[in-house]
Structures are given as structure tokens and as C-alpha cells.
Amino acid sequence: MTFEKIREQAVSEWKALQSSKKPLLLVGAGTCGGAAGVFNVLQAIEEELARQKVEAIIIRVGCMGLCFAEPMIGIVKPGRPQIIYGDLNPELATQLVKDYLVNDNPRSDLAMGYVGEGTVDGIPYLFDLPVLKPQIRLVLHNCGFIDPEKINHYIANGGYSGLVKALNMSPEAIIEEIKKSGLRGRGGAGFPTGQKWDFCRKAPGNDKYIICNADEGDPGAFMNRSLLEGDPHSVLEGMAIGAYTIGANHGYIYCRAEYPLALERLRLALRQMEEYGFIGDNILGSGFDFHIKIKEGAGAFVCGEETALMASIEGKRGMPRARPPFPAISGLWGKPTNINNVETWANTARILQKGSEWYASYGAEKSKGTKTFALVGKVERTGLIEVPLGITLRQIIYDIGGGILKGKGFKAVQTGGPSGGCLPPSMLDSPVDYESLAAAGSIIGSGGMIVADEDTCMVDLTRYFLTFTQEESCGKCPPCRVGTRQMLGILTRITQGEGRTGDIEQLERIATTVKQGSLCGLGQTAPNPVLTTIRYFRNEYEAHINEKRCPSLACKNLISFYILPEKCQGCMLCMRNCPTQAIAGGKRLVHVIDQNKCIKCGTCIDVCPPRFAAVTKVSGEQIEVPLEPVPIGSSA
Amino acid sequence: MPDELAKIVAEYKGERGALIPILQKVQENFGYLPEETIAEIAKSCGMSESEVFGVATFYAQFYFTARGKHTVKVCLGTACHVRGGERILDEVKRELDVESGGTTKDNKFSLERVACFGSCALAPVLVVDKDVYGRMTVSKAKDTITKYE
Fold first, then answer.
1. Residue A58 gets which letter from DSSP?
2. Domain A370-453 carries which CATH code?
């Protein structure tokens, strides 16, 4: 079948779905939707549909990125735009079926917004919502709107037209097109993609490989997972284009085993490509052969580094090696290899579909296009976002993220995962592009963006990152192997109240050595969290070391919990819930915490009714309280 | 056991870089990597046992002892960390009376801490076997785990 025939079929299938006489339900069934309980919601909907004898078409879509509002569903009634409902539970969903599908009341009180043609009274256009307005969805445009398990949905929305276009171009012309788009590697380092392809294409040898790096290991990042789950074909189309351009007949996808749904979707997508002849021998009659294999990671963060990743594909310990030779000359099995990140591959498909000019019209001067970020931590609206490069951190955190959770104060945003840095409030107005973040001591990285508020201790957060990098250091280079352990030791001491004068300077010295003396990105960047927090949050280090005080009240060894006698109403809730029976008290008695038994889990603060708010947390001070429970009112 | 092992090994015969997929399949089948399988795997891959062992110990995924019936994983990714993942881990440790990496005396649960599941927007996250639970709290953690028989 020619591509034109395939496309016609796909478009008519898509149109038939859109103009179906039956209502269409789009269920956000990515991993996060599942974790938020969407399958219970779906079950309730199916039961209610059966009870009401309403026939509907249900499709499972990927993540739209509005994770804070999960579980979500979209409903399209014939002739109406799609209405998106969030924060559902089985009861609300059951009611929604009755109200909207049976009685035609769209329940604007439950709706987040609508998409598509037409309007609905009282419901805003979805992309006008503050969370979506600053976003531009070039890569994620299909996520949440198509069935990722149907290749025809992808094709009907422009999919694989980029591959067809590429197959009719010369490889040189494709490289020129990618160069003109300004696309830079989205895995973190930001190397110009067109140039990278060019190196590998020009490398001598006929046996070449391409690799998709889907080993998204940065804690706090899930952009690649969402894209692979929500629109796997976009990544595969990009790979096929890249393979043709470079002249590679073999491709690998290295995906971490923690992403079972993404792996399943990729396997299915590959089978569908094969059926249509988009992969295999003689792709679409072009004479070009290309095959893809999927390799599952086995749990090693360092395998995100390209040379370690290739060692892992070869069945070895995933340890990085020195470059040069660069993978473009000698990579997998010693052959020229081009390796790109999931998002980079998907971007190349879009560039071929829509043209480099279109792509380059978004973004900043030296950082073209868009970037996806996982906006998480202490923000009101967590989720997966896609923004034009050059947007400010403030726009991301406040406009899209809705500001800090519970109205607390913003302290820092961590970008680039364990390789990145923590940026303070003074950097809120700096643009998010490769150069600006590097100048601030951090990196764009793969796209994790974790927001910390006033309750997050920066020394403790740094200790957390070093725990991670120390465990994940492969052990090859002593500066990284020994240095991360030493830095972790010092940081642990500081957070335990055993910091010493000179610790900060010592940390800086070790950090600099590790940065300079390590072979791969893991070691070279592991000190970044240490260096940026010392640069921007030195006062927190000093409070821990000099005053044995944790200003954020987070470090367990430096905090104490007290029950305030003037506020305690003797309700016994904290006493009953304390896991170590550290609280003495009784009815109408002021409760007392035994400081020796207290493990500082914070349960008492959580359960104390807010109207009493009798439990307090302090650091570096003692509060005068009775030693034994006393009748309420007697101690004052 | 030998039959199953032979089947797995045969499936990858002649394939380059097959060691890790073989180890993964063996673990999927037996729940861990029994010591006696290593020699057979080494032979089929044309490697020494120490090389196979070297690869298997490098990756966090592989175990050399039997695991509990259920695996409880507490996520300590960055987002989970800032939203209190450590408190969840403490509670699970207390509830199951086991350290992370360990297995309960009745072999019912193995406890692990994991760097990131990629469900960060729902932090903190707890995973039991293949079920992902988001927006976890200290009090919900106990009920979530005790549901598993």
C-alpha cells in the first residue's frame, strides 16, 4: 500500500471517530493517571453507562501533562467540543455520566476546559487556562488526544509525513534542514543535532548504528516516559528519519525497566510500523533498510551516559570510557554511532513534518524551539509542561505552576537533576535557555524542575543528591568514586549537627577536584548541587555548622517537637497516633513529648487539629514545657 | 529448572550482547539469579563465570537471593524527597519491621527504595509489585501495604 492510501484510510478512520454518533470518552491512562486512580473512575463510568444503557466509545489516551488534576477524562458529545474534567473520583464520574451523557448538563462546575470547535457556556477554552496559556505544544501535541496504541491516529494527525518527506530528500538536505531548525540535544548537553548527524554520516564505514536514549534516570524527571507512553510513534518516526540520513541500518532503544508501560507501547508501535512497511527492509519502496531493537535497562543511572549506555547494550558493565574516539567515529561494537535522547528524536520528526522555519520561529536566539519539563515538588500545579526556550523561571513556576504549595515562600528551583544546580529567588527572572542556566551554575539537563519551598533544607537536599550520585558512581575514576563519598560524609555530618569550621571550604575543594578529574558527565557534574547551594545558600550551611540549627526545620537531628501547654486541649489524638509511644497525656491533660523516645516523624503535627495547632517544631532552641502531663490551664 | 534455563539461553543463541537480557529473563523466571544458573549462562555467552557475576552485580536490578512474595518500593526521587518520601519509607520500615533491601521474616514482603519511578507529579509515590500509588501519606502507607496478602 502506498503512504497516500494509508494516510487516506487513517484520516477517514479518525474523522469517523470524531463525528461518531456515540459519545467519545478519552481517559487519561498513563502511568500517573493509573497511580491517581483513573482505573477506578473508568470502572465506575463503565458501570454507569451500562446501567443507563448509553453506548459510548472509550479510548485510553496518554498523559496531557496536567498531572495535578489527575484522574482526568475528556468527553466529546456529537457536534460538541471535547470537555475535559479533572480531579474525578468514582462518585463524581458516575454523576457526570448521568448529568452530561443522559441529561445533557455539561456540569461546568466540574469542567476544566474545552478543546475543539464550538464553545460551551460557562466553560473556558482549555488552552486559555493559566497553566496552559504560556505553553506551546510542538512535541506533546498528540499526548492526551490520540490513542497511542493506534498508529492510524498518529498518521491522521500528520504522523509519518516527515519520514515520507525525508525519504524523498538527500541526506545532506535533511541535515541542512535540521541545522536550520536550530535544534539542540534535549538530553541535557545541548549539542546541535544537525552537526551531530553530520559527523556520523561522514564517518567512514558502512555499518552504522543509531540509538535512542530512553534511560531517563534523573530523579524528578518523567518527560520521556510521558512522551513514550502518550505518542510512541513520534519518537520512532524521528529515529527512522535519522537512520536514513546517517545511513544506519540498525537502531536500538535503550529504555529503563522502571517504565513498563512505555516499553509495552514501543513494542506494539514497532509491530504496527512493520505492518505498514515504515520499518524493515526497503522502507516504503525507498530501498532503505532499517531495523530497531529494544534493550531494557537493568537499573544503573550511569547508563544514561552515552559510552556507558553502549557498553550496556553490548552486555557489559555500564562503565563510561574516555572520548575521543567519539561515538560518531567508534561507538556501538566499534562502529559509527549516533545517539540522541527521546525528545530530540521526536523533535526531528516534527521538524521534517512542518519545516525548519516553523520550528525555529519558537524559542530564543541560541536555543530554538521548545523544551519539555517535569514541573514537580512544592508547586500547586505539578505536571509535564512544554514551553518555548527563553521563558523565565518565574513564568514557569508562578504562571504555569500556580506558585508555591499552600502559599509558602519560594526558596529554590532545582534543574538538571543530580547534575544540575539549585537556583535561588534572585534567578527567577532569568530566561530558561542553555546559556543562561549554565552561567547560573546549573544546566537545562533533561528537564526535571523541582521546586523547593521554605521547608526544604538546602543542605539536606544536597546531601540527598550526593547520596544518589555516590551510590550510582560506577567506580571507575577515583575522583568521582572517592570524592562523592567524602562529600556525602561531610554533608551528612553537617545535617546531623556535627559540622566543623572549614567544612564548607573542604567541600568546595573536593567538588572542584571531582569536577576536573572525572571521566564522564556523572562525575563532572555531581558536584554541581554542592557548589550551587554553597554559592546561593551559604547561610544555611553556616547555621547548621556554627549554630547547630536547621533554619528550614527539616534535619531530624537538629529539630525537636514540643506540645504547647497553652494550646493543647488534651484530645489525645497525637498520643494515640505516635508510633513510638513518646507522648504522655490523658483526657483534658496537657500532653508531653518524651524527647528521648521521639523519632521526629512529624505524625503529631499532622494529626493535631488545625484549630488547636498545639504541636510546634523548633531548631536550636528549647521550649519550656511541663515534664509530666498536667491538667489543662494549670501550667500557665 | 535446567529445562527452563536451557530454553532461555537457547532463545538468545548467537545474539550479540545477550547477557543482560538473559539475566533479566532468568530473574523473571526464578525471581532471582540462583547461583547454579551462572555457570550455564557463562558457558552459553562464551564468558567466564566471574565476568557474568561482574555484570550482574553492577546492575541494581539483579538479586542473588530469593525475594519476598511482594515487593514494596518506596520512591526517593527528588520530588518524593522534598514531599516527604523519607517519612513514608520510615513508616513502611516500622510497619514491616525490615530494613530497605531486606525481606520480612515470613517472606511476604521485600522492601526497596528506588531513585525514581517517573510519577513525580504525584509524589510521594509507593509501589507494590506493579501497582503505583501516588499522593502517599504516612497513614495511607500502612493500609496500602496491608491490603496485600
1. E
2. 3.10.20.600
The secondary structure of A9-45, three-state, reads: HHHHHHHHHHCCCCCEEEEECCHHHHHHCHHHHHHHH
Asked if A213 contacts A297 with a C-beta cutoff of 8 angstroms, the reply is: no
Question: Does position A126 have pLDDT exceeding 70, yes or no?
Answer: yes
Domains contained in chain B, CATH given = 2-58 (1.10.10), 70-146 (3.40.30.10)
A590 phi/psi in degrees, rounded to 5: -70, 125
Tell me what percent of the residues of chain A surpass a pLDDT of 70. Answer: 100
Cβ distance of B23 and A299 shorter than 8 Å: no
DSSP letter, residue A425: G
Distance CA A84, CA A107 (A): 11
Residue A490 in this model has a pLDDT that exceeds 60:
yes
Per-residue pLDDT, A633? 83
Cβ partners under 8 Å of residue A368, min gap 6 = A181, A182, A183, A184, A359, A360, A362, A389
**pTM greater than 0.90 (yes/no):** yes
In this structure, the dihedral spanned by the alpha carbons of residues A463, A465, A470 and A471, taken in order and rounded to 10 degrees, is 110
Centroid of chain to Cα B14: 28
Would you state the CATH architecture of domain A3-128? Answer: 3-Layer(aba) Sandwich (3.40)
Architecture of domain A458-547: Up-down Bundle (1.20)
Which residue of chain B comes nearest to A36, CA vs CA? B134
Name the residue ranges covered by the structural domains of chain A: 3-128, 160-360, 370-453, 458-547, 559-631
The pLDDT of residue B1 is: 58
* Fold of domain A160-360: Rossmann fold (3.40.50)
- Least CA distance to B23: which residue of chain A? A298
Assigned fold of A559-631? Alpha-Beta Plaits (3.30.70)
- Tell me, yes or no, if A343 comes closer than 8 A to chain B by beta carbon: no
Contact B121 A218 (CB under 8 A): no
Give the helix/strand (H/E) hosting B70.
Answer: strand B70-75
If you search the block for the grid coordinates 564517518, which residue do you land on? A203
The percentage of residues in chain B with a pLDDT greater than 70, rounded to a whole number, is 99
- Residue A84, SS3 per DSSP: strand
The nearest CA of chain B is from the CA of A441 a distance in Å of 19
Q: Would you call A222 and B62 a contact, using CB atoms and an 8 Å cutoff?
A: no
User: Average per-residue pLDDT in chain A?
Assistant: 95
Mean pLDDT value of segment A399-409: 95
Question: Would the pLDDT of A636 be above 80?
Answer: no
Rounded mean pLDDT, A287-301: 95
Nearest to B81 among A317, A464, A602 (CB): A464
Q: A532: pLDDT confidence band, cut at 50, 70 and 90?
A: very high
Q: In the beta sheet, which residues pair with residue A616?
A: A562
Q: A-chain residues within 8 Å CB-CB of B87?
A: 601-602
Q: In this complex, do A217 and B115 lie within 8 Å of one another by their Cβ atoms? A: yes
How far is B30 from B123, CA to CA, in rounded Å?
Answer: 32
User: Is B91's CB within 8 Å of A579's CB?
Assistant: yes
CA–CA separation, A158 and A176 (whole Å): 22
Assess whether pLDDT exceeds 90 at residue B124: yes
* Per-residue pLDDT, A635: 58
CB contact (8 A) between residue A314 and residue B17: yes
Q: What is the pLDDT of residues A555-586, one digit of tens each?
A: 999 999 999 999 999 999 999 999 889 999 99
C-alpha distances out from residue B5 to A149, B10, B12, B38, Å: 33, 9, 11, 10
Residues on chain A touching B114 (C-beta within 8 angstroms) = 258
DSSP label at residue A61? E
